[in-house]
Design a protein that fits this description.
alpha/beta
């Protein structure tokens, strides 16, 4: 027997933020970061709370890739004035931090007198899909740990395209490639289902159609809305189907060298697609056939399975090139000596990652080492 989770309630479209006028609350914790304060997005939330005379406190020093120290600060803040509503406003790091704090406080300071707070997630990037997932990524030293638990799901997700209109092109590209990677990995996951497949197929089509427009013209609210919805749908797909070794490798690369998560996925994605499809072998895997179906849905040449896989790989590379994403890891400023020195450590982390078991092909250390080395040069499409 399988299961498909449909939580949370999703409010989407222009002016979706207005749902905050409808939510009952007496005491609110707003979790956000300094960028949201600087650019006035946090004030859009606090103005609504002020107009309703609702008491609130702001935890606004969440940083990218939140670590254990960050979570401890958040737990103290939440414990001192326990809220009945938690609002997370920001990118994946902010939403993941809020998730982890709520979860950790419930585990370490259980109190039967406390009702769990209503948890509202408002993403300000179109990338992680964290607003609809059971996942939270937390950094411990140089390793990214992936928490997975149904209690991490927010109660309400608010998708307002106006909140992502000012995202710079480089971040739009990185987060958009993260959306594509979520869909590709959920689609070929060992835990994929008819339900997750339907979402993943739609997401892949939306990304190729609307991501370049968002990158060129961030003020195109239709394109922004489509990518914001695609990010959420990709999250729904992978929270039910899980992910694969692109994410395992990216978590390790990001943890060791601080490569932004979406960019790390973009650098590794095509090599993993080729390996999962066994492109240089028989190309007769179930993953290969599903990749070829995606090529067909994108109106790419796909007369045979191998042809379809090759077309998809070329399309991924073309999307990267159009948005000026680096070709390989070596183009991110990491030295060859540092990369080789930390390679075995990254491979070990990737093997332990919670995304690895659902990859369609089972990797070993040798395979992951080779994938890192191929991604170093960025030659995934060569010879196809």
């Amino acid at each position: 027997m399988s299961e498909f989770l449909l939580k949370p309630r999703i409010r989407f479209g222009q002016d979706a933020l207005s749902i905050l006028n409808e939510l009952p609350a007496r005491n609110v914790l707003l979790v956000t970061d300094q960028a949201m304060v600087k650019f006035g997005l946090a004030q859009r939330v606090t103005q609504i709370l002020d107009a309703r005379s609702i008491a609130f406190q702001i935890w606004d020093d969440v940083v990218a890739d939140p670590d254990i120290a960050t979570l401890v600060r958040g737990m103290k803040r939440m414990d001192n004035s326990y809220p009945d509503l938690v609002i997370a406003l920001g990118g994946g790091s902010v939403i993941d931090a809020a998730k982890a704090v709520i979860f950790a406080l419930a585990q370490t300071r259980p109190d039967a007198r406390r009702e769990p707070p209503c948890f509202v997630a408002i993403p300000t990037t179109s990338g992680t899909g964290s607003e609809v997932t059971t996942f939270s990524v937390v950094k411990a030293h140089a390793e990214k740990l992936v928490l997975v638990d149904p209690s991490l799901l927010p109660d309400i997700a608010i998708l307002d395209p106006a909140l992502v209109a000012s995202v710079p092109p480089a971040i739009t590209a990185d987060t958009g490639m993260d959306v594509l990677c979520h869909a590709l990995e959920a689609y070929v996951s060992r835990a994929a289902s008819d339900f997750s497949d339907a979402l993943a197929e739609n997401v892949v089509q939306q990304v190729f159609r609307f991501l370049p427009t968002c990158w060129r013209n961030g003020r195109d609210l239709l394109a922004r809305e489509k990518m914001h919805n695609a990010s959420c749908m990709a999250g729904m797909a992978f929270t039910n189907a899980s992910l694969g070794i692109t994410h395992s490798l990216a978590h390790a690369l990001g943890g060791v060298f601080r490569v932004p998560h979406g960019r790390a996925n973009a650098l590794l994605m095509a090599d993993v697609v080729a390996w999962n499809a066994d492109y240089h072998g028989q190309c007769a895997t179930d993953a290969a056939r599903k990749y070829a179906r995606l090529a067909h849905l994108l109106d790419l040449p796909a007369a045979t399975t191998r042809h379809g896989v090759a077309s998809l790989l070329v399309a991924i590379q073309a999307l990267k090139d159009e948005m000026t994403i680096p070709a390989g890891i070596r183009d991110t400023g990491i030295s060859a000596a540092e990369f080789e020195q930390r390679l075995a450590d990254m491979v070990g982390q990737a093997l332990r990652d919670s995304c690895t078991p659902t990859n369609p092909r089972t990797p070993d250390a040798l395979a992951l080492t080779e994938l890192y080395r191929r991604a170093w040069t960025g030659n995934a499409v060569q010879g196809h």
